[in-house]
Structures are given as structure tokens and as C-alpha cells.
Amino acid sequence: MNATAGPTARSRAIVALILGYFAVLAYATVTNDPLALTVAALGFGVVAIAVGALLYVQAADPGPALLAAAGSLVAGGLLQFVAVLGRSAVADGLSSLLVLLGVGCYVYAVWSRSA
């Protein structure tokens, strides 16, 4: 992804990453292919990091909730790499929790700004 690309191009790249992740995840689930499962797990980390970075970069005035969302997503994505490379179920679970926390913080940030 080009770091100097405009917001629209970055958003489209993120959407493409997410769609690619779900395509690989669907294939891995149907075929139970170990390589595809590993690629899907790594894709989860890439998507989480990319979305977290995009939230941070595109926010004109990131409040604490948006910063927490971006940080949790990036941390969850990085921890997913640890989970895959270290074959750690604990790291995998913690990664999922951090990503869920990031999504929750993002929802709260959007909700609190519109209220």
C-alpha cells in the first residue's frame, strides 16, 4: 500500500485486503488446507494493522477512544504474528480480544461524536 496515496486509495486498499482475507478464510475453512489457514491468520494480522494505521492517519483530531481503537488494532495485529510464528493459542486469543477491543473503541468513538 502506498503511504503517500490519498485517503480514497488507502481506503480502497484496506477494503481489498479485507475482501482478500475473507476469500482466503473461506477457502481455508472449506478445504481445511493448513497453508491457507496460516495465510488467513497472517492476513488477519495484516488487516488489523492496516485498519489501525488508517484510523490513526486519517483522523484529523483523534480523541482518546480513536487512539485506543488504532492502538488496539495495531497491537492485536502484531500479536497475531506472534501467535502464528510461535504457535501460541494464548497469543491468538489475546490478539482476537485486542482487535475486538479496537472495534469496540472505534464504534464508541463514532457514536460519541455523532451524539
Provide an overview of this structure:
The chain crosses the membrane at residues 12-30, 36-57, 64-83, 89-111. Keywords: Membrane, Transmembrane, Transmembrane helix. This protein is mostly helical. The protein has one domain (7-114). The protein has helices at residues 7-31, 34-58, 64-86, 89-114. It is globular, with a radius of gyration of 15 Å.
Helix and strand topology:
Blueprint: H1 7-31, H2 34-58, H3 64-86, H4 89-114
Helix pairs in contact: 1-2, 2-3, 3-4
Keywords: Membrane, Transmembrane, Transmembrane helix
Transmembrane segments: 12-30, 36-57, 64-83, 89-111
Question: How would you summarize this macromolecular structure in one to three sentences?
Answer:
By secondary structure, this protein is an all-alpha fold. It has four helices and no strands.
What letter string, H or E per element, gives the SSE order?
Answer: HHHH
What structural class do you assign from the helix and strand content? Answer: mainly alpha
Biggest sheet: strands, sense, closure? none
The count of helical stretches stands at 4
Distance between the termini: 34 Å
Transmembrane segments: 12-30, 36-57, 64-83, 89-111
Keywords: Membrane, Transmembrane, Transmembrane helix
Features:
membrane, transmembrane helix, transmembrane, globular, single chain, mainly alpha, 115 residues
